[in-house]
Amino acid sequence: MIHLQYDLFRRLWFGSLLAYNPRIKGGMVTQTTQRILVTGAGGQIGSELTLVLRDRYGGDAVVASDIHEPMTPALQRTGPFEIVDVLDAERLHAMIDQYKIDTVYHMAAILSATGEENPQLAWKVNIHGLTNVLEAARARALHRVFCPSSIAVFGPETPRDLAPQETVLRPTTVYGVTKVTGELLCEYYVNRYGLDIRGLRYPGIISSETPPGGGTTDYAVDIFYQAIEHGSYTCFVRPDTVLPMMYMPDCIKATVDLMDADFSRLSHHCDFNVAGMSFSAEELAAEIRKRIPEFECTYAPDFRQTIADSWPQRVDDRAAREEWDWTPAYDLERMTAHMIERLRQRLGSTATRSSSSAG
Ligand code: AKB
User: Fold this and answer.
1) Could you tell me if residue 357 is inside a domain?
2) Is 240 in the same domain as 252?
3) What is the pLDDT along the chain (359 residues), one digit of tens a residue?
4) Among 88, 191, 252, 339, which one has the highest count of C-beta atoms within 10 angstroms of its own C-beta?
């Protein structure tokens, strides 16, 4: 029953995503079928991305992988799922061979807040894991690889109001350091080995379906659950904290659009700024209050405030708009309305919150 409801929602939720791509007929892509491996498929973006890719290419063509069994049952029901630790290069190669993989979406990562709690782990997973994927791509001559980056590449010296595509990258978090390194390493593999590697600098991602895991921008998701379940929330950043954010349908659309883009049009590859919306914590609370008037938000900034203060408030995504026609569909008002409607349905019926791996 739970699964049926989830499937129904998924089809409605992703219907709009499928509709925008003219090459998709009846939920399946008409181009040559790809065989895809998603690492970190149990994480916030990975779990929703995997289901969209399965709608496009067919369940069997998309192998979901993570270090744990996934919290989203549909990941195991709609196609293959494998336990893969990206630090285990041998297993990664074996999976690529076994499933004849030609495309990898490398979503496994440790995010900013968890990274500050365990910098060594963040370096290991984000750099050694990435290196293993890139080496597998080189050795197996993979067709295409997606390696996400983040607004965490920016630091206090980056212009805060509209962080340019090309700018100073001196992050103060280990997560940011791994993301700058990752962008440069991916670009090196593009230039040195002629691989097709692409990536976006994701802002904070907000989803009604999957919780984030260990990021600084997690408050923008937590606030909705607390508002609906308890009518109040204690936010871990100051009310005037403004950060770039994006609603999950836009995040998936950006990912899929970049992977579909004509490579010859791209001057950038692994480091595209992408903007969805930017708002302060108090603007988000006020927007929620329009629909839940009794909602109260208090503020108790913790160590994540320092991270948030080191990131820009908005990013300039002209390169993404020019090179692969990026446009977001959700602003603060539309996202908030959709989140509340969807969470009310879920929390009122079957949903339980879960924590999941990063990525
Ligand atoms: C985080 O907060 O660490 C992530 C990110 C912006 O990459 N959501």
Assistant:
1) no
2) no
3) 344 344 444 444 444 443 333 333 333 344 455 899 999 999 999 999 999 999 999 999 999 999 999 888 999 999 999 999 999 999 999 999 999 999 999 999 999 999 999 999 999 999 999 999 999 999 999 999 999 999 999 999 999 999 999 999 999 999 999 999 999 999 999 999 999 999 999 999 999 999 888 999 999 999 999 999 999 999 999 999 999 999 999 999 999 999 999 999 999 999 999 999 999 999 999 999 999 999 999 999 999 999 999 999 999 999 999 999 999 999 999 999 999 999 999 887 444 343 333 33
4) 339
Structure tokens at 298: 């208090």
- Ligand 1 atom closest to the CA of 113, numbered from 1: 3
Beta partners for residue 29, in sequence order? 24
- Which amino acids bring their CB within 6 angstroms of ligand 1? 111-112, 150-152, 175, 202-204, 215-217
Range of the domain at 180: 2-203+247-273
Q: Residue 68 C-alpha to ligand 1 middle, in angstroms?
A: 21
With 0.85 as the threshold, say if the pTM is over it: yes
Task: Let me know if residue 167 belongs to a domain.
Answer: yes
CATH number for the domain that contains residue 283:
3.90.25.10
